Amino acid sequence: MKVMLITGASRGIGAATAIAAANKGYTVCVNYRTDSTSASMVVEQIQQSGGKAVAIKADVSIEAEVAHLFSQIQATIGKVDVLVNNAGILQTGNIETIDSDRLRKVFELNVFGAFYCAKEAVKCMSARYGGAGGSIINVSSVAAKLGSAGEYIDYAASKGAIDTMTIGLATEVAEQGIRVNAVRPGVIYTDIHASGGEPGRVDRVRHSVPMKRGGEPVEIANAIVWLASDEASYCTGTIVDVSGGR
Ligand code: NAP
After folding, report:
1. Fewest Cβ atoms nearer than 10 Å: which of 39, 136, 163, 221?
2. How many angstroms does the Cα of residue 60 sit away from the middle of ligand 1?
3. What is the pTM of this model?
4. What is the mean pLDDT of each run of 10 residues along the chain (246 residues)?
């Protein structure tokens, strides 16, 4: 059974991805930062359907915690075959509200955390380290294309960095049997909007989406699980928009 680590899988897109991946036969690591109750509920749902999952707490914006997370995974369910860099945060407010504290939080998780996890994943997967190859999927955002004026240009810029990292890392590790791709979700019904300061955001902006609706987490999860699969075996450095046409 292949092992998939999904960062930030206690809720939202990460939780939906954990469930979709388990349904496809992956053994899943449900990473979370604080919400152990929600993480346990995801694990229980997977186990009740006959799947295998563990919940492991780690703040992936901290390099030492990421290294510890990967060693705990190897000790409990085996080496990581697929990494989904999903954990992310945003704060709402225009340029005048952005200070160093906000910038640090957004970039430390959305960018630094993705790099720390990718580095550990490459060590698990690379033929150079005796690995059998693997796949990394970064969860970006259409904000990277749109810029998110008046809302969160810092968050949009962090996702732009993730798009560039996807292309660069894909090229760097292609010969080592590792594929690196990204999914760019549009507006999706999850807690991230309330956590960032605007609970009703999806319903406010959904009229600007060509399909006139917000997305569901499972619609992103399905694209992630496809990119991880052999059906996407010739895709690397690819960025898939799942955004209702936005
Ligand atoms: P969410 O519902 O707010 O869930 C965030 C998840 O990340 C939770 O599981 C949370 O864990 C975890 N997390 C937060 N900080 C963490 C840290 N330092 N270390 C480890 N885990 C951490 O978010 P979401 O909307 O599903 O977003 C998932 C990804 O999709 C993010 O990268 C986001 O930028 C991207 N995205 C979302 C949308 C959207 O409209 N929802 C659109 C485009 C892109 P706890 O439960 O323990 O707090």
Report:
1. 163
2. 12
3. 0.99
4. 98 99 98 98 98 98 98 98 98 98 98 99 95 98 98 98 99 98 98 96 97 98 98 98 98
